[in-house]
Amino acid sequence: MRVVLQRSKEASVTVTGEVIGKIESGLVLLVGVTHNDTEDDAIYLADKIVNLRIFEDEQGKMNHSLLDAGGQILSVSQFTLYGDCRKGRRPNFMEAAKPDQAIDLYNFFNEQLRQKGVEVQTGEFGAMMDVQLVNDGPVTLILDSI
After folding, report:
1. How many whole angstroms separate alpha carbon 138 and alpha carbon 141?
2. Are 62 and 51 a contacting pair, CB within 8 Å?
3. Which of 35, 73, 85, 139 lies most in the core, judged by the most C-beta atoms within 10 Å?
4. Is 80 a catalytic residue?
5. Angle (nearest 5°) at CA 130 between 125 and 135
6. How high is the pLDDT of residue 136?
7. Can you tell me the distance from the alpha carbon of 15 to that of 23, in angstroms, rounded to the nearest whole number?
8. Is residue 55 among the annotated active site residues?
9. For residues 74 and 23, is the Cβ–Cβ distance under 8 A?
10. Choosing from 34, 79, 121, 122, which is the catalytic residue?
11. Which residues of the chain fall short of a pLDDT of 50?
12. Closest CA to 109 of 58, 42, 54, 61
């Protein structure tokens, strides 16, 4: 699994003109699944993400986790994270998992985040989505489960 994580002051996802997910402060996660990902990958990343010390403490140092900060998560499925652009001018998406495999693991990942006590809003798997965010910092990290 691959996650692009962005610390956010606010974020939302809209599908066909309707806001379906919205958070105040926390993290926006763009989540990609590849063929050989398992529930272990989702468990690992969920634990890593909620415990990463990327929120500022009273001295302005990144010392607090999402759990410490009481933040929320907006999780958006993003198969294009596995786009291979090394050859030609058109990305190859062969490394992205097929939708029936990816949706189950994506939902499992979001449930793991919720079980850790975090409010999780989501986009709509497979839909064309408009994602808006105010990036805080900016802080952007790329996490892989391998």
Report:
1. 10
2. no
3. 73
4. yes
5. 105
6. 96
7. 16
8. no
9. yes
10. 79
11. none
12. 42
d(CA 35, CA 33): 7
pLDDT value at residue 146: 78
DSSP string, the chain: -EEEEEEEEEEEEEETTEEEEEESSEEEEEEE-BTT--HHHHHHHHHHHHH---EE-TTSSEEE-HHHHT-EEEEEE-GGGG-B-SSSSS-B-TTBPPHHHHHHHHHHHHHHHHHTT--EEE--TTS--EEEEEEEEEEEEEEE--
pTM > 0.85: yes
Beta carbons within 8 Å of 92's beta carbon, 6+ residues apart: 83, 84, 85
Q: Which of 78, 112, 121, 122 is catalytic?
A: 78
- Residue written as token pair 């975090």: 118
Q: In this structure, what token pair is assigned to residue 145?
A: 């489960």
Structure-token pair, residue 20: 């379906």
- A 10 A CB-CB count for 17 gives 6
